[in-house]
Each structure stands twice: as structure tokens, then as C-alpha cells.
Amino acid sequence: MDTLKWRKSSRSNINGGDCVEVACLSAAIGIRDSKNPDAGNLTISPENFSALVHRIKRGELHG
Fold first, then answer.
1. Residue 27: inside a domain, yes or no?
2. What is the reported pTM?
3. Residue 62 lies in a domain
4. Number of independent structural domains in the chain
5. Buried b (16+ CB within 10 A) or exposed e, 20-49
6. pLDDT (tens digit, 0 to 9) for every residue of the chain, 63 residues total?
7. Which end of the chain is less congested by CB atoms within 10 angstroms, N or C?
8. Where in the numbering of this chain does the DUF397 domain appear (predicted)?
């Protein structure tokens, strides 16, 4: 997935906080840790990604 265009989360900060990057695949969304991109990534369907983002924005998921 090195040729993909990864985008960093708008919630990432310049101090090296929790950073997530996403990339659009042909039929899925790739998610990885921007501080450790070689550690691998997770792929989920666009529908599940949308549901995940909505749950995060509503504060339903806590780390």
C-alpha cells in the first residue's frame, strides 16, 4: 500500500499526539498509525468507516 495517498486526520496535532491516516482503496478504506506506518493497516468498508466516524464524533467510542 505504499503507492496509496495517505491523509492524516484533521484531529492530529503538531506535538505528535494520536495520529491516524486514511487512504481510499477501490472498495475499502485503509487506516494506519501515522507514527508507525510500516506496522500495517486495517481495511474496512466505506459504510463501516462512515459509521465509525459518526460514532467517534458523537463521543460513543473512548480510547
1. yes
2. 0.74
3. no
4. 1
5. ebbbeeeeebbbbebeeeeeebeebeeeeb
6. 458 899 987 766 666 667 889 999 989 999 999 888 899 999 999 999 999 989 988 989 876
7. C
8. 4-57
From the number of C-beta atoms within 10 Å of its C-beta (0-12, 13-18, 19+), residue 10 rates as exposed
- 2 lies in a domain? no
Residue type, 53: V
Domain assignment of residue 28, given as a range: 7-57
| Inside any domain, residue 63 | no
Beta carbons within 8 Å of 21's beta carbon, 6+ residues apart: 6, 7, 8, 9, 31, 32, 33, 34, 37
> The C-alpha cell of 36 is what?
508507525
Contacting residues for 37 by C-beta, under 8 A, at least 6 apart: 6, 21
